[in-house]
Each structure stands twice: as structure tokens, then as C-alpha cells.
């Protein structure tokens, strides 16, 4: 069951990141988050009410801490998606966000079987490969006699700078998300969904404070319906992913749940390829193949 729930979380996270990243290409990151945040908060609150169970102080506290970390991570993440290639920012953040909670799981004494170890390591390698931008025509050296400061070189430098910026945003977001994964696991041990609802509330408050600082306004239905729906869908899908992840951490090994959930960039990369035509070089193709192999190793 932990595999099904964690992979469900990965599917939802990847789809949410694609919608959110698409929206931030057309509006300020906080304008998007001011729509997606409240949408996820409302859905999480409804889910907590339907699931039943009273909120507990420890769970609420962990949820609030998780929401603060996740809120900061979202700002870094969506800003990165707007500034750099979607197929670089999302995988880097996933890789970094895996390290912290997996280290904690091992410290706490989780010791899965050898096959699960191999499968988990295969998945981690897959995340690294999917993160690789690879070489391309822009990386080739200029021909003899070419102007070293010509337009082609300037475009190459611009692309390189964009990729570096995307990696930086991905690392920052990954550290925040790794903390979120850990805190929401701790809060989820209360047995209810209130930590997820409180986390969404705390994250939304982070967005509101940040938006007030720069006087950002939420994306509106009247201004751009497609943008509004993308932001709304990102919030709903991300909330669903939070719930699946919380259940996954209760259903089995925490480290395994984190590794499988962190495969979500594969979904983002595939959607970016299909919709935007972003290039998928051999490294990313190999990464997706290894991800499938890793999933088989930990499930069969």
C-alpha cells in the first residue's frame, strides 16, 4: 500500500508542479500562489473534517512548521520554474528534498531488505539523471574565426546562466521541501489529516505575507481564465498529493515513501515534453527508464 500511495503522491505532485510552473510563466509567482494556496487549504480542511478525528496539539504544531517550510519552498520553487527550465528546477528540488528525510529514516533504524535498497538507490540515480540537462548544440565550441562575443555565444551564456539559476532555486526549494516531508510525517503520526490542513493554512499565510510585501494580487478569473484554472488546479492537485503522502508514511517505511514520492519530476518532465516540447535528452530518457526499474524492484 505504501508504494501505491507514494506513487499516487508523485503523480499528483508532478502534475501540480507542471500546472503551477505553466502559470508562473504568465504571471508573478505570488499571484499564482495566492490562488493555489487557498484552494489547497480549503480542500485539505474539508478532507480533515470528512476523515474525522480531533486535532492534537503535537500534530497541529508539526503541521504549522511543515506549512512554513513548504510555503518558503513553494516561493523558491515557482520562482525557479519561471526563471529556469521546468525540466531542471523540478528534478533538482526532488533530489535535494530526498536526502534529508531518507537520512533521518536511516538514523531512526529503518532497514529494508536488499532488493528494496537496490530499488531505492536506483530511483535516486534516476532522479539525478532526469535532473541532468545534458549537452547540446549550444555547448559546442565556436568555429575558428568566429566572433567570441557574437550573438550565438551570448545566447549560450544566457542559457548557461538560466540553468545555473534554475539549479540554485531547485536546491533551495529542495531543502525546504525535505523539511516539509519530515515535519508532515511527524504530524501525520497523530492519525488524522489535521496536520495537512494546518500545513496548508500556514503555507497560505506565508504567501499572503510575501504578497503584501510587494503588493502582489492573486490571478483573477476575469483577467485570464486559463491562468486562473492552472493555478487553481495546481493547488487542488498539490493538496491531494499531500494527503497521499501523509497516508503513505503511515502505511510502510518512511524512507521508501519519500524516495517513491520524489519521483514526481518524471511526470513534470513528461508533461513539459508533451505540452511545451522541452527537449528530453538521453540522460532524462535513461532516468525515466531507471525510475521504472526501481519501482519494480521495490514492489515485486
What does this entry look like structurally?
This protein is an all-alpha fold and about 300 residues long. The protein contains 11 helices and no strands. It has helices at about 1-25, 30-50, 55-85, 85-105, 115-130, 150-190, 195-215, 225-250, 255-260, 265-275, 280-300. Helix 1 (about 1-25) packs across helix 3 (about 55-85), helix 1 runs antiparallel to helix 8 (about 225-250) and helix 2 packs antiparallel against helix 7 (about 195-215). The chain is globular and about 55 Å long. Mean pLDDT is about 80; it is low at about 135-150 and about 150-160.
- Unreliable segments of 5+ consecutive residues: 134-150, 152-158
Number of strands: 0
How would you name the oligomeric state of the polypeptide chains in this document? single chain
Shape: globular
Radius of gyration: 19 Å
* Mean pLDDT reading: 81
Structural class: mainly alpha
How far apart are the termini? 13 Å
Give helix and strand order, one letter per element, not per position: HHHHHHHHHHH
> So how many helices?
11
- Helicity range of the residues? over 70%
The main sheet comes to: none
Proportion of strand residues: under 5%
Amino acid at each position: 500500500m505504501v508504494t501505491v500511495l507514494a506513487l499516487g503522491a508523485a503523480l499528483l505532485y508532478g502534475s501540480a508542479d507542471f500546472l503551477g510552473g505553466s502559470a508562473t510563466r504568465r504571471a508573478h509567482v505570488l499571484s499564482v500562489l495566492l490562488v493555489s494556496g487557498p484552494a489547497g487549504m480549503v480542500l485539505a480542511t474539508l478532507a480533515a473534517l470528512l476523515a474525522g478525528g480531533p486535532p492534537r496539539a503535537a500534530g497541529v504544531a508539526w503541521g504549522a512548521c511543515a506549512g512554513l517550510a513548504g510555503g518558503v519552498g513553494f516561493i523558491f520553487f515557482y520562482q525557479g520554474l519561471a526563471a529556469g527550465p521546468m525540466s531542471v528546477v523540478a528534478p533538482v528540488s526532488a533530489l535535494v528534498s530526498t536526502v534529508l528525510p531518507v537520512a533521518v529514516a536511516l538514523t531512526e533504524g529503518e532497514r529494508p531488505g536488499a532488493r528494496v535498497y537496490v530499488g531505492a538507490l536506483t530511483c535516486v540515480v534516476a532522479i539525478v539523471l532526469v535532473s541532468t540537462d545534458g549537452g547540446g548544440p549550444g555547448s559546442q565550441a565556436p568555429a575558428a574565426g568566429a566572433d567570441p562575443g557574437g550573438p550565438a555565444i551570448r545566447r549560450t551564456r544566457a542559457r548557461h546562466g538560466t540553468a545555473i539559476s534554475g539549479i540554485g532555486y531547485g536546491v533551495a526549494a529542495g531543502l525546504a521541501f525535505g523539511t516539509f516531508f519530515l515535519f508532515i510525517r511527524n504530524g501525520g503520526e497523530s492519525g488524522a489529516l489535521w496536520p495537512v490542513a494546518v500545513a496548508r493554512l500556514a503555507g497560505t499565510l506565508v504567501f499572503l505575507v510575501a504578497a503584501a510585501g510587494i503588493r502582489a494580487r492573486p490571478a483573477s478569473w476575469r483577467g485570464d481564465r486559463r491562468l486562473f484554472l492552472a493555478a487553481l488546479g495546481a493547488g487542488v492537485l498539490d493538496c491531494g498529493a499531500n494527503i497521499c503522502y501523509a497516508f503513505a508514511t503511515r502505511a510502510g517505511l518512511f524512507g521508501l515513501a519519500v524516495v517513491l514520492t520524489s519521483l514526481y519530476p518524471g511526470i513534470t518532465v513528461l508533461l513539459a515534453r508533451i505540452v511545451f516540447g522541452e527537449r528530453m535528452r538521453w540522460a532524462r530518457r535513461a532516468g525515466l527508464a531507471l525510475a521504472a526499474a526501481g519501482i519494480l524492484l521495490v514492489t515485486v
